[in-house]
Amino acid sequence: KSSGLASNLQPSGAKADALREEMEEAANRVEICRDQLSADMYNFVAKEVDYANYFQTLIEVQAEFHRKSLALLQNFLPQIKAQQEAWMEKPSFGKPLEEHLAVSGREIAFPVEACVTMLLECGMQEEGLFRVAPSASKLKKLKAALDCCVVDVQEYSADPHAIAGALKSYLRELPEPLMTFELYEEWIQASNIPEQEKRLQALWNACEKLPKANYNNIRYVIKFLAKLTEYQDMNKMTPSNVAIVLGPNLLWPQAEGNMTEMMTTLSLQIVGIIEPLIQHADWFFPGDIEFNVTGNYGSPLHVNHNANYSSMPSPDMEHGERRQHEQARRPLSVATDNMMLEFCKKDGLRKIQSMGVRVMDTSWVARRGTSAGRKAASAPPA
């Protein structure tokens, strides 16, 4: 038994010796590491001034970098700002007319010229032009393209209602109407003058008071609308109908009233202003006009696509877009345009006059061929 016990204790003793040696070796390594750490710390403390100098140099280099960056930005920012101000392709929808013309170096607003020129080529015979609502998606796309001063003539030549809708939208979204807030009362007072000659002369005087930019553009638009009515047998857009659907986009009060007021006296007064301007465009704005000022538009063949449209909002509009489409109109909706047309057709002058709105027959006015002859006459002939 004693010999067996002795044989078992020998391996255990050897294992304990091995563990003891490992512990001693580990303790030695720890001591070495501790000494090394102490040495490094003493060295760091000894060279602390050098490290502080390195850090100070880093901060100085960074400060110099930022100073040079600031100077560079200050030199380049005016150039960047000047390039942005001189950039031609600025949005035109919803921007003041004078600002757009000054930036683009034009006399006629780009959306006006682009839409009018395309309509002259492909939309003059389209029934219900300016009254029939276009596809909402097509209108949105065309407006965005006009804002970029880029128009695919071939694409939109097949969609004259979208072109007409874009022109109406541009006029409606101007911060100030083309016929100006300042002259609004004068326009209204002129339309209320009972004598025909004095009424037309008052309208003529108001035209002459328009700022140059507004005068050039209203002359351009009215001349186009007069040309449009020459095709009224095909497009059904008489001067009266055109005045009903476009008049409220050319003139509106600075503080708009409620919709009921707009649909009665106020809207009809505006129609009474726009209609004679269209009927006698050559007397109010004598001389020929070149519509394609820039010469950038083609001449696609006219195709009648009226059957593809409805006088109500497009069926591809979502509910929210329909509400926005109706509310965004200033001040009448498409449905109101149609309502006004039916109102005028059914009730005629009698009901309009019963509301206190004077409507005159100006067909007797002779057209003037030159501005010299026009200005020579102080009033329309009797």
UniProtKB/TrEMBL annotation:
Listed A to Z, the keywords are: GTPase activation, Phosphoprotein
Under the heading SUPFAM superfamilies, the entry gives: BAR/IMD domain-like, GTPase activation domain, GAP
Q: Name one GO molecular function term.
A: GTPase activator activity
Against Pfam families, the record matches this protein to:
BAR (PF03114), RhoGAP (PF00620)
Q: Which PROSITE patterns match?
A: RHOGAP
Q: Where would I find the Rho-GAP domain in this sequence?
A: 95-285
Q: Where is this region: Disordered?
A: 1-21, 307-330
Cleaved signal peptide residues: none
Biological process GO terms, please? modification of dendritic spine; negative regulation of Rac protein signal transduction; neurotransmitter receptor transport, endosome to postsynaptic membrane; regulation of actin cytoskeleton organization; regulation of dendritic spine morphogenesis; signal transduction
Q: Where is the composition biased (Polar residues)?
A: 1-11
The answer, when asked if Phosphoprotein is one of the entry's keywords, is yes
Which SMART domains does the UniProt entry name for this protein? RhoGAP
Indicate, by first and last residue, each region the UniProt record lists as having compositional bias (Basic and acidic residues): 316-329
Q: Which GO terms describe its cellular component?
A: cytoplasm; dendritic spine; leading edge membrane; postsynaptic density; presynaptic active zone
Q: Which InterPro entries would you find in this protein's record?
A: AH/BAR_dom_sf, BAR_dom, RHG17/44/SH3BP1-like, Rho_GTPase_activation_prot, RhoGAP_dom
PANTHER family linked: 3BP-1 RELATED RHOGAP, RHO GTPASE-ACTIVATING PROTEIN 44
Q: Name it.
A: RHG44 protein
The organism of origin for this protein: Helopsaltes ochotensis (Middendorff's grasshopper-warbler)
